[in-house]
Design a protein that fits this description.
The chain has 242 residues and is α/β, with parallel strands linked by helices. It is 43% helix and 15% strand. The longest helix has 16 residues. It is globular and about 50 Å long.
């Protein structure tokens, strides 16, 4: 059976995961979600992979969930289960994950981009939560961590679509690239990231995905105290000053 993703791992450890359902605008079917989950779970413990760039085939990043499946009532449990595992696999992926958004990223496709660490958008990218108009509540919490509560409320409740330049202005994307440069720019960003030691990257990623809703004291214990415990309590003991 053919796969709905395409993957590649460069010699330096930057991997690429491409949603490969271009004929369906990379809609997130049960099969595609399961393949993403399995691939990220595999790469999570693979020392040959240091960072991942996620993009879409064709002219669309991702058009959201495959609505044809929602019309089949018997698929309900599988839709929910695959969706649950997929969202957590993306959010909890322990290595840097960059979205190279090559076109529209709407509904579940926008959620996918938001769950990544970085978002580099093509100049022709579009974002939005049109699913609210069809009765499907959007994911709010990860979006508000990025763009703020007020803007996230507006985008979730109105379903308004925004272009790449507005996305940059509100902080939804980190940068904009011309379409022909997008993947190269995303790979360059990934290679800048992996200049750091992998242990430091994975330690940082660990608290990036656990601290957003924490109090300062809870976050400080993870981001400061635990880091000191892990990295400075080596064989020679803690460093001291006299």
């Amino acid at each position: 059976m053919s796969r709905d993703i395409a993957t590649q791992v460069a010699d330096d450890g930057v991997a690429t995961l491409t949603l490969a359902r271009a004929e369906r605008r990379n809609a997130l079917s049960i099969k595609l979600r399961n393949e993403i989950t399995q691939q990220l779970d595999s790469w999570a413990t693979d020392p040959a992979v240091r960072a991942v760039v996620l993009t879409g085939a064709g002219s669309t990043f991702c058009a959201g969930f495959d609505l044809d499946e929602f019309a089949q009532a018997d698929l309900g449990p599988r839709i929910k289960d695959s969706s649950h595992r997929y969202h957590l696999a993306v959010w909890n992926f322990p290595k840097p994950l960059l979205a190279a958004i090559n076109g529209p990223a709407v509904a579940g496709g926008m959620d996918l981009s938001v769950l990544c660490d970085f978002r580099i958008a093509s100049a022709n990218a579009i974002f939005g939560h049109p699913e609210i108009k069809f009765g499907a509540p959007p994911l709010f919490t990860p979006l508000q961590w990025i763009v703020g509560i007020g803007v996230a409320r507006e985008l979730c409740l109105t379903g308004r679509r925004i272009d790449a330049h507005e996305a940059l202005r509100i902080g939804l994307v980190n940068s904009i690239s011309e379409p022909e440069r997008l993947l190269d720019d995303a790979m360059a960003m990934a290679r800048t990231i992996i200049e750091a030691p992998q242990a430091a990257l994975e330690c940082t990623k660990g608290y990036l995905i656990t601290s957003p809703s924490a109090t300062f004291e809870e976050a400080f214990a993870v981001e400061h105290d635990a880091v000191f415990d892990k990295f400075l309590q080596g064989p020679v003991g803690p460093r001291t000053t006299s």
